[in-house]
């Protein structure tokens, strides 16, 4: 068992440790400490979060950093621009369980890369201005939001990407449309059209493109 280390009077960021006060977290009692923040507030912090540097204040530091970023964005005319709205929506889809689309993004492991996570200017620098009628799109739908996997896409590009990544099961095999299209030598748009007009998955994928569907 690791030797217990008394953190009383130690300083971590803006926090000075006052005394040990364990807390119930994650279904068990865990070592924690009451701390005094430089701003005057007290807070209880898990020992591991103090030692790792994950927690450096009562929360005031994060609030100040957010306010500073918002002020900088407003100063440079970036607040409420189409690009900022796309960036904000991207973060909400991946970070906020209350977002109606969270289950399709953050809920299944889609993340925002570290350089973009809390830095809108970095996102704008990498993506550039948003063209009219375009939306933020990931080229690989199972990939993260990051440079190299994101583009400003037209509605047609978005539709094509949806088609390419839609899963289709034929027999005991499941692949996305682009994989089936490559395997059988049929354009992915043909498979999409067949399915949308009522063809079975087997017929839509396995019928040669020049053949007519039989009754």
Largest beta sheet: strand ordering: 1-2-5-6
Intertermini distance: 73 Å
User: How many beta strands in the DSSP annotation?
Assistant: 10
Please give the share of residues in helix.
25-40%
Secondary structure class reads: alpha+beta
Q: Please summarize the sheet with the most strands.
A: 4 strands, antiparallel
Strand residue percentage: 15-25%
Query: Low-confidence parts lasting 5 or more residues at pLDDT below 50?
Result: 211-215
> How many domains make up the 3D coordinates?
3
Number of helices: 9
Shape: elongated
Mean pLDDT: 82
Characterization of this structure:
Strands 1-2-5-6 form a four-stranded antiparallel β-sheet. Strands 3-4 form a two-stranded antiparallel ribbon. It has a two-stranded antiparallel sheet with strand order 7-8. The protein is of the alpha+beta class. The protein is 38% helix and 19% strand. The protein has nine helices and ten strands. The protein starts with 10 loop residues before the first strand and ends in a 9-residue tail after the last helix. It has helices spanning 47-52, 60-75, 82-95, 114-117, 120-127, 155-165, 177-184, 188-196, 201-206; strands at 11-12, 15-20, 23-25, 28-30, 32-37, 42-46, 135-138, 150-153, 167-170, 173-176. It has three domains: 11-58, no CATH class; 62-133, no CATH class; 166-206, no CATH class.
């Amino acid at each position: 068992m690791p030797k217990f280390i008394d953190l009383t009077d130690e300083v971590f960021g803006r926090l000075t440790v006052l005394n040990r006060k364990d807390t119930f977290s994650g279904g068990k009692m865990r070592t924690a400490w009451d701390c005094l923040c430089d701003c005057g507030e007290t807070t209880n912090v898990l020992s591991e979060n103090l030692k790792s540097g994950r927690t450096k204040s009562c929360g005031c530091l994060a609030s100040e950093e957010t306010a500073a970023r918002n002020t900088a964005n407003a100063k440079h005319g970036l607040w409420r621009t189409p690009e900022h709205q796309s960036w904000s929506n991207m973060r909400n889809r991946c970070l906020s369980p209350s977002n109606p689309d969270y289950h399709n993004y953050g809920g299944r492991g889609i993340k925002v890369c570290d350089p973009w996570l809390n830095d809108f200017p970095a996102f704008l620098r990498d993506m550039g201005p948003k063209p009219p009628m375009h939306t933020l799109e990931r080229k690989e739908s199972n990939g993260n939001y990051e440079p190299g996997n994101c583009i400003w896409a037209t509605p047609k590009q978005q539709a094509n990407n949806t088609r390419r990544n839609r899963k289709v099961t034929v027999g005991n095999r499941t692949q996305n449309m682009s994989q089936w299209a490559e395997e059988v030598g049929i354009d992915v748009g043909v498979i999409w059209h067949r399915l949308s007009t009522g063809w079975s998955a087997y017929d839509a994928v396995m019928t040669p493109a020049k053949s007519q569907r039989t009754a």
